[in-house]
């Protein structure tokens, strides 16, 4: 079987000998892996047509994971900036601080209306998931 292959803009004609009997495999289709075409291995499953791109909506604040009168870290990460201080009045869903995990910033919002008693973290501090960040009166 002769095939015409294009590699980085150059066209090559190659002759291929089929060594195994059976249904046509990847030689009749191709599998793209990280920008390279792979021939061999298992035949890829039929892919569904790609979904149309979704419109990007502004990110909602992450749930605080707060219970009772405190806000806990929803994920492990590093505190970027607390946006409230002790004595500040806050409203439900108000962003209290920004943290970063895996190069993504996450806003942590208040689960309740109240007054900040203590901010237990500072910029640059590493926190664990579930760690108390802010306490309310």
Overview of this protein structure:
The protein is built from no helices and twelve strands. With 137 residues, it is mostly beta strands. It has a domain at 70-136: RNA polymerase II/Efflux pump adaptor protein, barrel-sandwich hybrid domain (OB fold (Dihydrolipoamide Acetyltransferase, E2P)). The strands form four sheets. The protein has a four-stranded antiparallel beta sheet with strand order 5-12-10-7, with no helix packed on it. Strands 9-8-6-11 form a four-stranded antiparallel beta sheet, with no helix packed on it. A hairpin with a 2-residue loop joins β1 (2-7) and β2 (10-15). The radius of gyration is 27 Å and the shape is rod-shaped. The chain starts with a strand and ends with a strand.
Brief summary of the model shown:
It is built from no helices and 12 strands. The chain is mainly β and 137 residues long.
List keywords for this structure.
single chain; 137 residues; mainly beta; transferase; Biotin_BS; methylmalonyl-CoA carboxytransferase activity; Single_hybrid_motif; biotin
CATH superfamily of the domain at 70-136: RNA polymerase II/Efflux pump adaptor protein, barrel-sandwich hybrid domain
Spell out the helices and strands N to C: EEEEEEEEEEEE
Poorly predicted parts: 26-30
How many strand elements? 12
Tell me the helix content. Answer: under 10%
Distance between the termini: 78 Å
Q: Which overall shape is indicated by the principal axes computed on the Cα atoms?
A: rod-shaped
Computed over alpha carbons, the radius of gyration is 27 Å
CATH class of the domain at 70-136: Mainly Beta
Largest sheet: 4 strands, antiparallel
Strand % is 35-45%
CATH architecture title of the domain at 70-136? Beta Barrel
Helix vs. strand class: mainly beta
Mean pLDDT: 78
Query: How many helices in DSSP terms?
Result: 0
Main β-sheet, spatial strand arrangement? 5-12-10-7
The name of the CATH topology of the domain at 70-136 is OB fold (Dihydrolipoamide Acetyltransferase, E2P)
InterPro entries: Biotin_BS, Biotin_Carboxyl_Carrier/Decarb, Biotin_lipoyl, Single_hybrid_motif
Keywords: Biotin, Transferase
Region (Disordered): 27-67
Domain Lipoyl-binding: 61-137
């Amino acid at each position: 079987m002769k095939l015409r292959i294009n590699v980085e803009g150059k066209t090559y004609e190659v002759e291929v000998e089929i060594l195994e009997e059976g249904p046509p495999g990847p030689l009749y289709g191709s599998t793209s892996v990280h920008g390279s075409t792979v021939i061999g291995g298992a035949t890829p499953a039929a892919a569904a047509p790609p979904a149309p791109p979704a419109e990007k909506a502004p990110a909602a604040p992450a749930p605080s994971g707060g219970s009772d009168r405190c806000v806990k870290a929803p994920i492990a990460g590093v505190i970027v900036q607390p946006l409230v201080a002790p004595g500040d009045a806050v409203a439900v869903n108000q962003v209290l601080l920004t943290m970063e995990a895996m190069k993504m910033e996450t806003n942590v919002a208040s689960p309740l209306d109240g007054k900040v008693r203590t901010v237990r973290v500072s910029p640059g501090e590493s926190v664990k998931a579930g760690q108390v960040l802010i306490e309310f009166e």
